[in-house]
Design goal:
The chain is of the alpha/beta class and about 280 residues long. The chain is built from 10 helices and 7 strands. Strands 3-2-1-4-5-6-7 form a 7-stranded parallel β-sheet, with helices on both faces. The radius of gyration is 19 Å and the shape is globular.
Length: about 280
């Protein structure tokens, strides 16, 4: 194992993490992938074989993450980890005025604090802390929602906006060690995170001004999820971020690139009006 390139990926049970593991294993990497359930560890071990080592931890559990990093260090036998892919995340939705604070905190804890915990634990294995001949890279999985925030997705978008800033600061902090930090920002991907939109409890907001708009948002999320990119497509972008000789600082991978472009170049007030009318927050 020490003779082949190895990558650690958080949150590989489904979706983008699984897609990244599949692509990287197929390209000759050894993947250390984190899951929270033993059943997922067993399933992925059977699927990917000896090229995959499951790590059992929740990214919010610092002690467990550091134990996972020690296991990786022992397996590497002195070699450098080629990459850390911070992918694990959740999506919390709801109107900010009424959102339970414990749900807000959980969103921040998983999507931001979890990234810091994993980065601190695995960064030394990438070469951070001392110059090595072949330093690894960190790939942070953001979102197109890291630059354009939809209503009722404030918790999720806040973490992705924050991850963009975290990545930029960290990239510059790691300059002395040659460890690069690259962002991959997917658009809609056909993953279970979108299927969970059907489980969003809009009834608790039914008596607010947002009731009908939330129903529209849920229907929209289910629609774009079904039309989303295959997780392997994002896996290919992650492979590029890890291996390109001179990688971009940010890769956007979306099934609707023109829509992403328009939200970036149109005036924010114009996007406000378009979004407001689409969801019924403004009169048509």
């Amino acid at each position: 194992m020490a003779q082949r390139k190895s990558v650690a990926i958080t949150g590989v049970s489904t979706g983008i993490g699984w897609g990244a593991a599949k692509v990287l294993v197929g390209k000759g990497f050894h993947v250390f992938g984190s899951v929270r359930k033993q059943a997922d560890a067993d399933r992925l071990q059977a699927e990917f074989g000896e090229a995959f080592t499951p790590l059992l931890f929740d990214v919010t559990d610092e002690a467990a993450v550091r134990a996972g990093a020690r296991r990786v260090e022992a397996a590497l036998e002195g070699a450098t980890l080629a990459g850390l892919v911070n992918n694990a995340g959740i999506a919390v939705a709801g109107p900010l005025l009424y959102l339970p604070i414990d749900e807000w905190r959980q969103q921040l804890e998983v999507n931001l604090t979890g990234v810091v915990i994993a980065t601190q634990a695995f960064a030394p294995l990438l070469g951070a802390g001392g110059r090595v001949a072949d330093p690894g890279r960190i790939v942070n999985i953001s979102s197109v929602g890291g630059r354009n925030a939809n209503p009722f997705m404030a918790p999720y978008c806040t973490t992705k906006f924050g991850l963009e800033g975290l990545s930029e600061s960290l990239r510059r902090e790691l300059l002395p060690f040659g460890v690069d930090v690259v962002v991959v920002a997917p658009g809609a991907v056909a993953t279970p995170i979108w299927d969970k939109a059907d489980q969003i409890d809009t009834t608790r907001y039914a008596n607010t001004v947002y009731g009908a708009a939330l129903d529209r948002l849920r229907a929209y999320m289910l629609q774009i999820g079904k039309a989303g990119l295959a997780p392997e497509k994002i896996g290919e972008a992650i492979h590029t971020a890890l291996t390109a000789p001179s990688p971009k600082v940010r890769y956007v991978v979306s099934p609707s690139p023109m829509q992403v472009l328009m939200t970036e170049i149109l005036p924010k007030r114009t996007v406000d009006r378009i979004t407001g009318k689409r969801l019924g927050l403004l009169p048509g």
